[in-house]
Specification:
The chain has 2 helices and 4 strands; from the N terminus they run E-H-E-E-H-E. It is α+β, with helices and mostly antiparallel strands and 71 residues long. The protein has a single domain (3-69), classed as Alpha-Beta Plaits (2-Layer Sandwich).
Length: 71
Amino acid sequence: MAKIKETYPVIGMSCASCVRNVESVLNKTKGVIEANVNFASEKVTIEYDDEIISMDKLADAVKSMGYELIT
């Protein structure tokens, strides 16, 4: 297992519900160990196994909720 922990900007979040949506979709994604969103900085810290999921797939998961993960 190759764990990676990175922080990325997220565009489009405007409320606490947005934070929950992004965290929820990422934390339910196979390969994600933990995802935490900081609303004030508009960033998400994601710890994931890059042997299971790619950064592109993580960005797609966030995009499916109407937000944009900047990688």
